[in-house]
Amino acid sequence: MANKISDETIEYVGILAKLELSGEEKENAKADMEKMLDYIDILNELDTDGAEPMSHVFPVHNVFREDAVSGVDGSADTLVNAPLKKDNSFKVPKTIG
Amino acid sequence: MAKQYETVIGLEVHVELATKTKIFCSCSTEFGGAPNTHTCPVCTGMPGALPVLNKKVVEYAMAIGLATNCEITRVCKFDRKNYFYPDNPQNYQISQLYLPIARNGFVEIETGSTKKKVRIHEMHMEEDAGKLIHDEWDDTSLVDYNRSGVPLVEIVSEPDMRSADEVIAYLEKLRTIIQYLGASDCKLQEGSMRADVNLSVREAGTEPFGTRTEMKNLNSFKAIARAIEGERERQIELLEAGKSVIQETRRWDDNKESSYAMRSKEDAQDYRYFPEPDLVPIVISDQWIDQIRARQPELRTEKLERYKKEFDIPQYDAEIITSSKHMADIFEAAAAICGKPKKVSNWLMVETLRLLKDHGMEPEDLRFSPENLAKLVSLTESGAINSSVAKEVFEKIFAEDVDPEAYVEEHGLKMVNDEGALEEVLKKVIADNPRAVEDYRGGKEKALGALVGQTMKLMKGKANPGLVNQKLKEML
Description:
The structure holds two protein chains of two kinds.
Chain A: H1 7-16, H2 23-40, E1 64-65, H3 75-79, E2 85-86, E3 89-93
Antiparallel strand pairs in A: 2-3
Chain B: E1 5-16, E2 53-54, H1 55-67, E3 71-72, E4 75-76, E5 79-82, E6 92-95, E7 102-111, E8 114-127, E9 131-135, E10 140-144, E11 151-157, H2 164-181, E12 193-203, E13 213-216, H3 221-240, E14 249-253, E15 258-261, E16 274-275, E17 282-283, H4 286-295, H5 300-311, H6 315-322, H7 325-338, H8 341-359, H9 370-381, H10 387-400, H11 404-410, H12 419-432, H13 434-441, H14 447-458, H15 465-475
Helix pairs in contact in B: 2-3, 5-6, 7-8, 7-9, 9-10, 12-14, 12-15, 13-14, 14-15
């Protein structure tokens, strides 16, 4: 395996993803990520000089909607699975003002 | 000698676009609905929901880009900005990082007598987040996703500003341009225009920038000016004490007139942007740009010049009237109806500005119709009412948009031009004020004023002052 994920990196990724991982889970995640990065490295074997960067594989562009309101009161559907609600709103632990 | 410091400021300005629907779904953007009523699976980030771009958002963004001298990016696309916060139901915001819709623009600002260019680094399209209301009673937050997915453009300037005055001139310039385009109402208080201030200080005459901070929660021009002054002083104090400025986001508290650091270490600023796979690229043709350009309305600078030429209005008056698109629209419509542009302009410049100031209102808040202002001008010009009555009627138009013809009729405010009736009153005034009469006859011109005043009072302000003067002189 060419790529190495450090302890600091896995710690940092855990914070960004809001995940609390046990020591064993961290080791497994490190091994998985290393494998993924190695796989992606295959691309480096290709000569990409002159190739345009691409973000979409389909030859489709300019898919638009017209600016017309359709839609009714969506609040019942939106809130149906809310663990906690109040005043037609989701209730969540207090966020910093 | 104390060191001299220079303030370096760049702005990130968010503007909510005036579309009827959200950026990626057909939910209404209307303000003030009950919580979560304007939501659907797309704007609440339900798994499997697919966004579809609102064409109007692209067209407004292009219009703003063109009006601020930007280059329009011919192939642009969206990216995901990843972060966790309850106002963001998808756990990412759809924005543009790599290929924003417009780049490399500028606007010209004027402070005092100096003109200067403020460069625009880039402008991108993105979606707004939901709103959090903090519940004091049970120490929780309530989340309303009605704002989630409302279209925004973010306009990022270069660090070209050096003072609060320049910042405000820049914001006013952007606001006027965008209002004229009809792309947003740009109300700072209501949050349809929001500015984040990036500020650093450096010793005067030195090249490298100091460490900057970003300040949020600035919702009036006054707050922006105070925050800039406060942050400049805070940074200079740190440097003078041999400490260094930390790059961070700070929240301005306008009541306390101070700021505090917002993010903790846990909220690392690493958004891991990547191309948004659910939205295909946007390709903008020459033809589309030409179409948008052809549709651009007359902007303020052009309007101002035209008013001076076409209506012979002084520079200062034209500046005031065109400072708000809404006021300019009222002016032009009223002038077209009554054919008296100078008179209309006078009503706007004097009484309207006075009443706006008295009520603490903005020109955008004017609610009277050009028809009623035009009627008032015609009533005054034809001599049907005198100027003091006209002022009284105007206050009614300003407050309730009354029809001045009906109002004057109903309250019997028409000017009395009946010479017989006037002579009767004058006889009484002359008889009741022998001293003033004597003074006048003895050569005291000023005494006439008192007699005119008495007459107007007896006729409840409806007399024609010119006629009163003339008749009085004859009878004395």
